[in-house]
Please model this.
Amino acid sequence: MSVSPSADDLAHMRAALALARRGLGSCWPNPSVGCVIVRDGRVVGRAVTSPGGRPHGEANALAMAGAAARGATAYVTLEPCSHHGRTPPCADSLIAAGIARVVIGSRDVDPRVNGAGSARLRAAGVAVTDGVLRAEADDINAGFFSRIRAGRPLVTLKIASTLDGRIATHTGESQWITAEPARRAGHALRGRHDAILAGVGTVLADNPELTCRIPGMRSVPLVRVIADSHLRTPLTHKLVASALRIPTWIITRNGADHVRRRAISGLGVTLLDVPGSTAGIDLRRGLEALAERGITRLLVEGGGRLAASLLRAGLVDRLAWFHAPAIMGGDGLPAAAAFGIDRLAAMPRFVRHSTNQLGADLLSEFRREA
Model:
C-alpha cells in the first residue's frame, strides 16, 4: 500500500529532480535519473545517471551509500528499471542493497518496465510510494517519453527575434539581435539538449559552430545536425571541418549525389538518409532517424523555412522565444516562413509556461497546446 508523501519526501524528491535536471543532454539514449538515498534523516548517497547513460543514477547513488543503504529510503525520479540490458536491473540492485523504501517520481513508459520495476520492488518487500512530484518528474523525462511513445525526440524550437518576429534584415544580417545575457541563456539551452538542428540555409548564411560555449556545462559533446536535402553544406564550413572531433550528422534525402556523399562522409560526417518531400526532406522521418540513434531532446535553431516546415507538420513540442526590444519592419526575414495557414483554427497553438527577463531581452517558453 502506498504511503502519502511527507514534507521530507517532497524535499528529498526535489533534490533528486535537481540532480536529474543537471544530467539533461548528457545521458542519451537513457533518461537522466536523479537518486537520493536517505537513512535516519541523513543523505548517504546522491547521484545522477552518468554521461553516456551508464551507470544509472540508482547504481551511482548506491555505490556512494555503500553499507549505509541497508534500511534506507531511495528517492528516484523515474521508476527503477526491471529489465536486463548492459547493466543489471536497478530494481534488483536496490533490493540487493537492502533499501527498505523507494519513492518514485515518474512511471517509466518503456514497455519493458512500465510498472514492472515497482512490482518487483513490492514483491521483495520494499515499500513503494509512486507519483511524488510527478508533474516535475514527467517534465524532466519528456524527451525520453517522446522517443518511446512518438518515436521521435522532444522538439524545442528556439527563436531570437525582434518584437515583430524578425530574425534577420532583408540583407541577411542577424548577429546580434539579442544581447549577451540572452545569448548566454541560449547556450545554456543548448547544454540541456542532446542535439541541435539547423537548416542548410542557416549553415550557408552563418557558418555556425552550433556548440555549447559555457565552460564545464557538458561532458558529452552536443550532436550537431543539419537538414540538407542536396548536401549543399560546404566541406570547408566549421561543422564539417570539426566533424572528427564533434559529432556532426546530416539528414539528407535518399539518392543524394554519391560524389558529395563520399566527400562529406570521408570527413567524419554521419549521413542519415530519409525520403524526400516537396519541401526537401521528410522531417518526420528525419526526427525518427535521430530517435533511432538515441536522441531524446532536440533543439532547433534553424531559420524561418525549417521552423515553418516543423510547425506545419505539427512537430514542435516547445518554443523558446527570445525577444529583443526592437522593431525591424516587414522587409526583415520572419521567424517562420509562410506555411499555408488560411484559417485561424489551423494555427499551431501553444501555452505560455514561463517568462524571464534577460537584461534588456525577454525569454518566453511555451508548450504545445494539448
